[in-house]
Each structure stands twice: as C-alpha cells, then as structure tokens.
Amino acid sequence: MGRVPQEQARRDARHRGAPPELATVLRTGPFHLALRTALTARGLALHRVQQRLAQRGVHVGVTSLSYWQQGRRRPERAESLRAVEALEEVLDLPAHSLTRLLGPRRARAEEPGPTVAVRPYRDLISPADAVDELLAELPGTRDTGLHTITHIERIRLGADRELLRRDSQHAVRAHREGIDRYLAIYQGDAGCDVSRVLVRAEENCRPGRIRRDQASRLVIAELLLDRRLRTGETHLLGYGFDDAPAPGPSTEYVRGFNSGTGQYVLQATFHPRALPVRCHRFASRAPGTAPYESEELTLDGQHCVHLVATGLAPCLLGISWDWE
For the chain, what is the mean pLDDT? Predict the structure, then answer.
C-alpha cells in the first residue's frame, strides 16, 4: 500500500475530529446539505471560499456556490466537478467525500438518454426462473426506461412482529421516449399468500396487469403512469403493498436495484410492544451471498430506524433486525 499524501493525511485527521453531524451527512448526503454543513463547520463565508478556490486556479462564482449549498443547482459540467474536488481541499474534507454524493450526472431533455447499467431481475430475486416466467406474461421490454432520482420507502411492522405495510414515494426520470409504465415487484415472507397481497396505486399512477406466483411468493404489478414521458422528463408516483393477514414474524426488508439510482431512503417503524434488540443496514450483490457492507442502526424515539443511500450501483440493500 502506498503512503497517503501529507495533505490528504492532514485532511483526514481533521475530518476525524469534525462535528458528528458533518461526518454523518458526508456519509449519507445529499450533496447540498453536506456542502452547507461543511461550510458551517469550517466557518468560511462564500466569498472566502471563492478566493481560496481562485488560489488553486479554480474560478466559480459566489452565486453558484450559494445555489449549490441550497440545492437549487448542482455541479455537472467538467469545470464545476473540478471545483467540487477543490472544495474538498479548501474545506479540509477527505478526497471524494463531496464528489461521490453527486451520483450520476442528470439527464437533460435535449441530450440523448444516458447509458444506464442494468442487471436482469433474475440476478436479484430468488428463485430466478419464477421472475422470468412472471415477466414473460407482461409483454414489452423489461427495461421500463426509467431510473430512480429519489425513492423514499416506509415499512411498518405490527405487534406480532409481522410486516404489515409498505409505502413508496418514487421520483423517476425517463431515459428514452414514450415511457408510460413502471414495474413494481414484491416478494413476501415465508408463508405469504400472494392472492391476498393488495397492490395500492395511489398517486399519479393506476394499476395495470398484476401477476402472482405462490411458490416464489412473488407479485409483479404494472403501474400505468398518467402520461407518457419524454426523454429526460421526471415523474412522481406513490404506491404500496399490503400483506394481510401477515404470514408471521419478519426479520428483514430488502430492496433490489437492477439499475443505478440517485438516492434511496428506507424507514422501518416498529410497534411499541414489539421492538427489536438489534438492527442493521446491509448491502449484498445477490440473494444468498454475504453482505459486503453492514452497519448497526439505533432505534429513535418513535421506534424507527432508517437508512439513506446515494449513487447506488445495482445491488440488494436493506435493513435486518433481531427479536431476541
């Protein structure tokens, strides 16, 4: 292993002594909040930041810096991304701590759609053959032409430790013309009766074809958007699944991402009479494989835990909990 450059070592050392809220937001994002928190922690006015950037040969306006920290704009052009790298030096932050929060460059309506890395659903759901068979009953491309900007998902567990409800608020962007549907996939816990799983299409969409497979506990729902999207256009939809009566105690909730995503938020709310003793967030490459990432989570005063992830590559991401 090579030696860490002296300047980077100094910045990392300072970061380890940074306020906890700065360390947290550098890990979770979003970018504008991390930048604003870092500016506050370092006590630097924007004009001073601009001067220090100029000393490094990077020229950016105070207005642009202000818009970046407010979330009104985000750095996308090559010179702007170079400015973000220089900001990490000016603010004594670890290398790439801000740039990684930017995630993939946003598509623009006048540009060709981006090349989106997509893994087949069969790589992320077991048994794989069941997914293929259900999808075959829904003619059309399996790439629905959408990728996630932000997905906020909430799950609720009941007094008998069962998963009762799953709700999604999902902002998506079209990466090709004429997109008018989204595929939502649900896999119940052992003992789930898929015939009784309720699909709720609540905001800016309506239910289309729904396919169920009892052996694999899978439900695939086609959610029809209320308009056709052009390349680069965005859409917000709200939907959910209710699994009742629940089949029994649940111990984890996993979301599969078959393509890259901007930001994902998952909150699990537990019944006050049925609280877990431990909770973890985890990420893995495929069903049945060991997690490549794991972190303990702490219940808050409302009996909730949550995770925030940005710039995700295709993976499985979720929260697990132990009852005893």
Answer: 84
| Residue 22 CB-half CA count within 13 A | 21
Contacts of 51 (CB under 8 A, 6+ apart): none
Neighbours of 60 (CB within 10 A): 21
* C-alpha to C-alpha distances, 159 to 154, 240, 277, 281, nearest whole angstrom: 17, 20, 15, 22
Residue 235 to residue 229: CA distance in whole angstroms: 8
Q: In a 10 Å sphere around its CB, with 0-12 CB exposed, 13-18 middle and 19+ buried, how is residue 7 labelled?
A: exposed
Rounded CA gap, 321 and 220, in Å?
A: 26
For residue 143, the model assigns a pLDDT of 65
Instruction: Reply yes or no on whether the pLDDT at 76 is more than 70.
Output: yes
Q: Encoding tokens for residue 19?
A: 């306020």
Domain boundaries, the chain: 6-102, 121-322
pLDDT at 108 over 80: no
Fold of 6-102: 434 Repressor (Amino-terminal Domain) (1.10.260)
pLDDT at 67 over 50: yes
Q: For domain 121-322, give the fold.
A: Immunoglobulin-like (2.60.40)
The closest of 264, 254, 268 to 316, measured between CA atoms, is 254
